[in-house]
Design a protein that fits this description.
- By secondary structure, the protein is mainly beta.
- It has one domain.
- It has no helices and 24 strands.
- A hairpin with a 4-residue loop joins strand 21 and strand 22.
- It is globular, with a radius of gyration of 19 Å.
- The protein starts with 8 loop residues before the first strand and ends with a strand.
């Protein structure tokens, strides 16, 4: 039984534990960093945007993970295929990034001598601005993008505890199906996004995590039957017995799923993947194009990531029993092992 959170209020009680556990379609619970009863170096707050068309992609991260700040950007070219990523590491930000307590109305900014990134919220728009000097091979990466988020569009929200630690929790919102328009330049390369074929997702995460985790996450957005369609799937983000984060989005409405399992290839992440669901409502094949792999080891901090971009094809079933055929929907699926 999955618990839907409908009553608004505080996310945490005075002891720093979740007051409600489960899922929602908006941020009905109020995140307040001051209510957390854990050391500052354990608090993790991030905003991650990924924008994809069938040919190109771009992704941006601003993350204050307590003892480590991370500013990242990625360029994707599915026609070659190729990816370029670069990042800035900031030791011990400890909340100094001042990440907003909601995704709804506040801006996120980071700037140093080399990088300036802005995530701006203006009514039903999200504006991404980037200026990254010497991004790769002495080429600069810069430009702006506008994401359109209709006012009544439902999203995936989950409030999840960790069984090992009563002060650990994950409060997360995924906003799929935002149409995108804008342009970035990397040297002489122009990366264009148009709203008829380009779509963005926001991963807004706040919480206190346990030290060692392995998570699986998948996401895609596009057009199916001339309507906006997308999905969010995943697990490994804590104790999901109260609710999973698996959800379909169709024409602005959310459709809740039960468990979805990732079946990864044994040896090569660029081999086909398969996804199955406990309720039979998400049955999908995934054809990889790019494996954005990173493996960092900073002694006690380790991260092994395979974020794989490609195309999803299969069938999904909405809450009312309607079946949708999905064909070559651009998105990504990932496996991430963290000690942080």
């Amino acid at each position: 039984m999955q618990n839907r959170i409908t009553k608004s209020g505080a996310l945490l009680d005075r002891k720093g534990t979740l007051l409600q556990k489960g899922w929602a379609t908006d941020l009905v619970l109020n995140y307040d960093r001051k209510m957390i009863k854990a050391p500052r170096f354990k608090i993790k707050e991030w905003d991650y945007y990924c924008v994809l068309s069938s040919e190109r992609g771009a992704a941006f991260t601003i993350a204050d993970n307590g003892y480590l700040g991370f500013i990242g950007a990625t360029i994707l070219d599915f026609t070659k295929p190729n990816e370029i990523s670069n990042s800035v590491i900031i030791p011990f930000p400890l909340g100094s990034f001042r990440m907003p307590q909601t995704s709804g109305n506040d801006d996120v900014r980071f700037e140093n001598k080399r990088v300036k990134i802005e995530f701006l919220k203006r009514k039903n728009l999200r504006i991404l601005n980037i200026s990254y000097k010497d991004f790769y091979n002495s080429n600069n990466f810069e430009g702006s993008l506008v994401l359109h988020q209709p006012e009544n569009m439902e999203t995936m929200v989950i409030a999840t505890p960790f069984a090992e630690n009563r002060h650990a929790f994950y409060y997360n919102q995924k906003i799929n199906c935002m149409t995108a328009e804008g342009q970035f330049t990397y040297g002489k390369d122009k990366i264009n996004f148009k709203p008829d074929n380009s779509f963005g997702v926001l991963d807004w995460g706040r919480g206190v995590w346990t030290y060692s985790n392995t998570w699986y996450w998948g996401s895609a957005s596009g057009i199916v039957n001339q309507k906006l369609f997308g999905f969010n799937i995943g697990y490994g983000f804590g104790d999901t017995s109260a609710a999973t984060e698996n959800m379909l989005f169709y024409d602005g409405k959310a459709h809740k799923l039960n468990d979805v399992e990732f079946h990864l290839p044994n040896n090569d992440y660029l081999e086909p993947w398969v996804f199955t669901s406990s309720d039979g409502r998400f049955e999908m094949n995934f054809t990889p194009v790019i494996d954005r792999f990173s493996n960092s080891n900073l002694l006690i901090i380790r991260s092994n990531q395979h974020q794989v971009f490609g195309c999803f094809s299969g069938q999904v079933i909405l809450d009312d029993g309607t079946m949708l055929e999905i064909s070559n929907l651009t998105g990504f699926a990932e496996k991430v092992e963290n000690r942080w």
